[in-house]
Structure formats: structure tokens, C-alpha cells
Specification:
Helices cover 54% and strands 14% of the residues. β5 and β6 form a beta hairpin.
Amino acid sequence: MSFFVGRQGGATFIFEITTPGTWLDYGDRDWAWRIEGQLRSLQSQFFEANAALNLFTSAQSIRPSFASREMWERDSQRRSEIQRAVEQERGNRMSHEQWEEIHFESEVRFKREKWAAGGIPREFEHNLPFLYARAFLYALDAFDKFLGVLVKEVDVPPEVAKLHLRIAEDFPNLRGVRNTAQHLEDRARGLGAGKNPQPLELKPITNNFINAPGGGVLVLNSLNGSRYGSTMSDGHYGEIDVSPESMQRLQAVLQELLSLFKWRGPKQHAPGA
């Protein structure tokens, strides 16, 4: 189950999880304690992904302040005022190099004035959605890794392995996109993965964002709507959708996982208020 809250500046999606009890009901308490810890870790990554989704959605919904024509005109006027003030400080007779220095000094003063008034640098506004998209990607990847560890525990229900496989089916590019995000220094040089990475053979890409049917295009740290993508180590382009639909798939896996175990005590509802 999910809960949607519409707010000014973006929407908040809350994905709910119900744990059938409070403690695992097994005779081996050491085993149960260890498994409970892993299940809590999975829930933690789940809600981290949920938080990242909401931050991403909010950042995507905010129009950059510099996109406003009114703001551009106001900034242009203020730049001119600051430059005239700097010119008066320097005197009237100046060389070409001094005029360049005046322009530089005016721009620095203008920026610092904007920041002091609460303005956000363009680079910050531009990068926010990418930061939150990667946070979503990392939480999803950590969830997958925790589930992979749980699969290897003795005496866990065999269906846990099937749920781990479902993650791979629901998010086939998860590992490849995450690896590129972790090793941009290699991909940016056109290299694959491993201790001795080899040059990438860039595969064809055709979507509503990129049209390269012949290949040869390297894509890094890209946003195509809600889809965060990069060229993976095998040369193919992969994406992860930072969306409520992705959270719903993750929610279904986690909810089914919790239901596979025997519990005792009152059932629990998350997240908290």
C-alpha cells in the first residue's frame, strides 16, 4: 500500500510496510536475531529509496530560478549597477586588461550578493535531481545486496532466492548502472570494468532522448525524465527509473519477504509518524 500527499513544490509518496509480528518465532534465537537484523537493514534501504524518490520528485518539479525572464532582467540591471560602482572606484582611464578585471570583479560581487540573499548557484540547482537519482540508485542496489546476503543464510525459506531473482528481473540494469556511477573515472575514459579495464565497444542507443542506431555514443550521469542512465561496462546504455512504479516493485518484494517468516507479537506498521 502507498500513500500520496500533494504539496506545493512537489508530491510526497509514502510506501507502507506491514510486518506480521514483532519478533521472529524460531527456536534458535541467535539465528532469529541475526535474520531480524538483516530484515531491518532491508527496511532501512527501502525507506531510504522512498526518501530519495521524494527528494528527486521535488527537485524535478522546481523550475530553476535562472529560467525566469523577469529574474534575468532584474539580474542584468543589478550587474550593470555593480559594474558602474566598480568603474567609479577604479577611475575613468583604464587599459583593456583593467576593463576585464572590472568585469570579473563585478561578476564576483554580484554572485556573492545573490548568495548572501539566499540565492542558490546554478550548478547546485542543476545537480540536485542527479544527486537524488543516484541516492535512489544506491539504496536500490544496497537492498539487492542485503537480499543476496539473506539468501545465503541457512534455513531461510527457499522463496527468498526467488525474490532475489525478481529484483534482477524488475531492475535488469541495476548493477550495471550502479557500477558506472561508482567508476565514472573509467567510463569517462571509455573503459569497461575490472582491474585492467578494456576500451568499451559502444552499442546502439535509440530512445526518446538519444538516437544513435550505429552506436559510438558514451552517455554518463544522464536524466531522461525520471530515468537515470549511463553507459554500462559492456558498452550498452542502461537506465533505472526513479519513480513510484519502481518503489511499488520494491515494496512488493519486501512485503512478500516479510510474510515468508514466522512471527510473534503484535504486527508492526512502517514508516513512523
